[in-house]
Specification:
The protein is α/β, with parallel strands linked by helices. The chain has one domain: Spore Coat Polysaccharide Biosynthesis Protein SpsA, Chain A (Alpha-Beta Complex). Helices cover about 40% and strands about 15% of the residues.
């Protein structure tokens, strides 16, 4: 527990047998439950989970790959069923520093925010460790997501290191959030519709040989479509809400 709240961590994982053991081994002791969602991996990801000697860890398996967003939603559902107070997302590849987790949780337990997300772009290590193309792409996508999601103060929209209050997620149409790459951007738009207060929290960028599998041109094309979709659906949802 953290400040009297139960904490659950969702770890979406697709072909992460290399990095997953280290990720699981470094999750802080105050975390009550860890739900690893194997999203149709073709390697030994599931075996690595079953080998972990940690009773907090449970495995959820997708028989086929459904996308990182879908994996996160499956983890959310498991934690919501257990009544977890705060739900966190940490990637299986070790790119999220567990030492930053208390900073993400603090605004939630203090009542200052309903959802917090990591912001790597203001960290002093970022210009040195983040590839230049990723830094430029993140800045551009962050500017666009400010418009589509309705949160003009947010930066680093592509950072998936997040924490959310249970009551807030209960107001979100989780099945309607985009299920693949672009999930964090679309989730922000859904959070806006739900009236959630969202805060940025500085986190450390971690790059240690991980490969996202994405390429600059493909990522920009994919995200551009998701962002247009996200804005259009947010306008429809919020207009319908006002009309009712």
């Amino acid at each position: 527990m953290f400040s009297g709240r139960t904490i659950g961590v969702v770890v979406p994982a697709f072909n992460e047998e290399r990095f997953l053991p280290r990720t699981l081994a470094t999750i802080p002791d105050f975390v009550d439950r860890v739900v690893v969602v194997d999203d149709g991996s073709r390697d030994r990801t599931a075996c690595r989970v079953l080998e972990a000697a940690d009773p907090r860890i449970v495995l959820v398996r997708h028989p086929r790959n459904r996308g990182v967003g879908s994996a996160i939603v499956s983890g959310y559902r498991r934690l919501l069923e257990e009544g977890t107070d705060i739900l966190v997302v940490m990637a299986g590849d070790g790119q999220m520093d567990p030492a930053d987790l208390p900073g993400l949780l603090a605004p939630l337990v203090e009542g200052a925010a309903d959802h917090t997300k990591g912001n790597r772009l203001f960290h002093p290590d970022t210009p040195r460790v983040m590839p230049a193309w990723r830094l430029a792409g993140n800045l551009a996508l962050s500017l666009l997501t400010r418009v589509t999601a309705g949160y003009p103060h947010l930066v680093d929209s592509q950072c998936g290191y997040t924490a959310t209050r249970r009551e807030t997620l209960a107001r979100v149409d989780l099945p309607g959030v985009y299920p693949r790459y672009g999930f964090p951007n679309d989730l922000l738009a859904h959070l806006h519709t739900a009236g959630a207060r969202v805060a940025d929290v500085e986190v450390r960028p971690v790059y240690d040989g991980q490969d996202t599998g994405l390429r600059p041109a493909g990522a920009m094309v994919a995200l551009s479509w998701v962002l247009v979709r996200s804005l259009a659906l947010r306008i429809v949802r919020e207009h319908a809400g006002c009309a009712s």
